[in-house]
Amino acid sequence: MPAIDILKADMQSLLDPAILFFVFGILAGLMKSNLEIPSQIAKFLSLYLLMALGLKGGFALAHSGLNLQLVTSLGCAVALALIVPALAYLALKRILPALDAVAVAATYGSVSAVTFITAVQYMDVKGLHYGGHMAAAMALMESPAILFAVIVANTVRKRHATAGASATVPTLSKILHESLTDGAQLLLLGAMLVGVLSGDAGKASMQPFSGDLFKGMLAFFLLDMGLKAARNLAQVRGKSPLLIAYSLLAPLAHAGIALGMASLFSLPAGDAALLMVLAASASYIAVPAVLRFAIPEASPALYLGMSLGLTFPFNILLGIPLYITIAHIVLI
């Protein structure tokens, strides 16, 4: 599809049912409605989306096989997972206490699965091609930021000699084990493996599950995310305007880095677009959960309020179509 056609369709994408349910969730949350998705149902929806995404990626990999494009895309993903949190920390430590800066940098250095899944759905609807291996790229980009946070936080503690603080923090090996064996991440990778092994026959048999149900489940989950985003907005009230600006400008900067890397290594426009989405996203589930016990000195209201209250809505409503359009214009 020509880039100009994608650009014309961007406003129409805001009328997509899944996006409209997200907006509805935000409005209901701002109205302080008692509308709520039970936590166990929300967890099921999250696991379903990851499983369906993994299957889709696995089926695509079974069809395309191992190639240079796959290796290059995954290499770029790992590089971004190391570069983004480092740059974020260098910028944030100028306006935040060191450990808060580490926590926010790790949050923005990791990825949002729901942002990625929404982007995949957007590209599917628009008929845009992308590699199924990008689901693996998402999985690879989650943990490096956690490793970065633990190492830098321990360095900061030693530098400031906060007596007794490190004794209450779990060991590096325990934290890494928790992040690398996270159930959601393992489900994604396991579903990809199932997709690769079952191939076209598996795709046909799982179509009602991983295809037909996908859009409705995504809409239901985005409704829940809209409610959570609205309720997290309160956590950034009264914060420095610089932090609010960072929440909205950092995704653009990180997406720009991804675009430059994709251009340098001649990635296809579809893969580049999803790489931009991943680089621009921020974690609001996996990394904050680890940070609560890895860096207890940092403020959860800060890094969770920024990522879920501001960056996530920005990416869902404006960022995704913007990144995809730019990728298809630059890498035409």
UniProtKB/TrEMBL annotation:
Any matching Pfam family: Sbt_1
InterPro entries: Sbt_1
Taxonomic superkingdom: Bacteria
Key words, A-Z: Membrane, Transmembrane, Transmembrane helix
Transmembrane residue ranges: 14-32, 44-62, 68-92, 99-122, 134-153, 242-267, 273-295, 302-331
Keyword Transcription regulation: no
Record bears the keyword Membrane: yes
Name listed for the protein in its UniProt record: Sodium-dependent bicarbonate transport family permease
